Every structure is written in structure tokens, then in C-alpha cells.
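To the team - zinc ion complex, inputs and output below.
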Amino acid sequence: MAKSRFYLMILMIGLLLLFGGCQLFRRQGPPKNRIPQSFTYMGDASTHQFHRQGCRMLKDCKVRIYYRDIAAPLKAGYTPCPVCKP
Ligand SMILES: [Zn+2]
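Output:
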């Protein structure tokens, strides 16, 4: 009886570790929308426009791309936003 209880406990600990490991792995997974430390412009991948930080047009933006300088979004074919005029 004691022996089967011992095995049950080992099994439970194993399951807990497995579950905990999965949670940890999920938490450490790659973030979908990584925000760089420094950026000046934000591109909207759906409208192919780029904006200054804090532009009101970015409220509806779902896929954001961050740029440090103005040359990068222009090179990628993005057009400047008519609202914030980057
Ligand atoms: Zn804008």
C-alpha cells in the first residue's frame, strides 16, 4: 500500500513538473509584437503607411513595424501618413 502511494506521488510530481515546464516554455516563447528600445517611426503593415509615435491613426493599427530612421520605411515602400506627416 505504501509503495503504490509512493509511486502515485512520483507520478503527480512528474505531471506537475511537466505542466510547469510547459507554462515556463510558453512564457518564454517569442513575443508576437516585439517593441524595440528606441524607434522614431511606426509602420502599419495593413495600410502600408508609416507614422510618428503617438499618431491617432495608429489606434486601429494591428500589425506594427518599428523604424529608427525615416529611410527604412521609405525603402520598404511605405508612404508617409497624411495626418502626422512624418
Ligand atoms: Zn500618422
